[in-house]
């Protein structure tokens, strides 16, 4: 119940507060008050606060606090649902140790940016599905990897310094022969050169029918990791469609985060298009949330795009930045 007092000439704000305090403690319902009137009603505010009733000077602030209270109640209700209790079980055993081993290799050579291949391996450790990806350091090796994966394939630059591969012409898709793979390798090596160019990754060509979304994370100095979910792909910075969540998430929280975005309308099926695997997408958010909660050494992480299809959810690209300070602390702790 929200009670607002705007005093008139004969209003006794203090007496009214005392009556409300007696009533509020007997109803069993939450009460929030707003006593408008500045210093003239301050004594009434004090009475309410001493009685355990939140009292605000302005009604808009009281309404805002009421909204937070409602949201809190809904969150608690979600947390008590039985189906959410097994969310942690979605993460494979030994995930943290496997991911730490990958990142330690970068730390040992004082490198904060993980390569795409390393980033995907971190995701894979936490059970997040990735497209088949192999690293090659010669044209011939690239052709052999492509043959093993199966044509058509995607070839991307393998680099420890270049994170936006498309900007340098470092992504070629739908390559159908070994000769095309060799030609692309040589072209990238010649155009980009070292130290940026170390080789290429050869990846399975995935049918892009579905919806591209992004899952990302930034680490706030006060609140810790903050998960971001929204529309992904190359237009992510244009649409600005995203929802925030504090990890770790259970399945209900993951689903609620997805539903907050505009792209959710497309994800659940739109104009004859089938719905994507929403359960699988929610499970991916849960796994991602445990990853960023477990690994404090991860400073930034994003999966873009994460392809949500009708029968699968696949990370097509990923980027991880680690914190040297946190990594050093983790290494000292282990020792």
Automatic annotation (TrEMBL):
<protein>
    <submittedName>
        <fullName>Acetyl-CoA synthetase</fullName>
    </submittedName>
</protein>
<feature type="domain" description="ATP-grasp">
    <location>
        <begin position="120"/>
        <end position="156"/>
    </location>
</feature>
<keyword id="KW-0547">Nucleotide-binding</keyword>
<dbReference type="InterPro" id="IPR011761">
    <property type="entry name" value="ATP-grasp"/>
</dbReference>
<dbReference type="GO" id="GO:0046872">
    <property type="term" value="F:metal ion binding"/>
</dbReference>
<dbReference type="GO" id="GO:0016874">
    <property type="term" value="F:ligase activity"/>
</dbReference>
<dbReference type="InterPro" id="IPR013815">
    <property type="entry name" value="ATP_grasp_subdomain_1"/>
</dbReference>
<dbReference type="Pfam" id="PF13549">
    <property type="entry name" value="ATP-grasp_5"/>
</dbReference>
<keyword id="KW-0067">ATP-binding</keyword>
<dbReference type="GO" id="GO:0005524">
    <property type="term" value="F:ATP binding"/>
</dbReference>
<dbReference type="InterPro" id="IPR016102">
    <property type="entry name" value="Succinyl-CoA_synth-like"/>
</dbReference>
<keyword id="KW-0436">Ligase</keyword>
<dbReference type="InterPro" id="IPR051538">
    <property type="entry name" value="Acyl-CoA_Synth/Transferase"/>
</dbReference>
